[in-house]
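Schema walk-through. Below, the input block comes first and the output block second. Nothing else is stored per chain. Lengths vary across the set, and this one has 383 residues.
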Amino acid sequence: MGSANYWGGPVTTGSQHYARQFAEKGWDVAYLSDQISPLHPLRWKSRVYTRDKLRLWARGGLRDLGGRLFAYNHFTLLPIFDAPLLRSELAARHSLDLTVPPLRRVLEREGFEAADLLWIDHLVFEGLLDRVPHARSIYRLADDPRLFPEPYPPSMLRRYPALVERVDLLVATSQRLAERVAATRSGPVLWLPNGVDYQRFAAAVPPPPEYAGIPEPRVVYVGSLEPWFDDVLLAEVARRRPRVSFVVVGPVRIPMPGLRALPNVHVLGPRPYAAVPGYMAHAQVGIIPFRRSPEVDAVNPIKVYEYLAAGLPVVATAWDELERMRTPAVLAEGPAAFGAALDAALADPGDAAARREYARENSWAARFQRLLAALEATPVGAP
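--- output ---
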């Protein structure tokens, strides 16, 4: 599996959940995550994550899930960036070849010189198709890489159509993405939304230590704070509700001066995935304040399933995929409507059992069974 986020990091994505499903069902999994290089420590916003990935690389990777999963970051001397030389075709073609130690040698050492299944969710790993002999291949598309705020260099984006066409099965997390790639791809496309580790988020858990100093009612957001996070909207909503505590948990990748200045807003930063259910279970409402954009319109948000599994009422801004999901969440446009929906949820939380049932029906285990059925029905292409 070639994925964007490293194993054990502050963000747990769909591919990591599928890696766990594969391992728990008896597969041996090599989980490879995004490149590191001598240039990475120079990028201010990712130094903490670079440190973690360097440690993982320096120890030669790690074994997890009873030894079934091998996690590793490759260290490349030719990283792929949108910068001179590094945006070239040379970097796109050979970044996986100029690794220390050679990536092929690491995989052979761990028993992955060939694979029954090759899983890619990140363009950086497109080259694995030509470097790892495999019986089947999947490209899992959770976002359109052409719409990211920090785009891939053109040399990588030019490889995107070929990757979409070459894999045996393309898995898209949103209907919009599925429709978009189905219009250009000759092979099968599976629309398979994100899911939830239901038992983890529905379980009774103690409150996190920080909540001792954060009074109720608590409104929580859990997830990365990226450019599409609408901190201006949330600051306006929080400013008008000084007796409501707003808790923001996750990696902060944008400046939020207006939000941080409010005494009733608590920006806690990233927390271990194992601790996240506690932040939800002891809050009163979960929120998703995103700015609508072509990119966000194709997002199938994991956090809405997790909020619902915890029994929380959910208030979110509206976007295309979230409207199609028909969740119990209340969708609102603008600070006034968002605030009114929040007030209503705090006054009357509604039916937590119905929210949990929606989440239970959308578990990662259920998604995995659909994935295996689609994979078995997929014709095998020529590697």
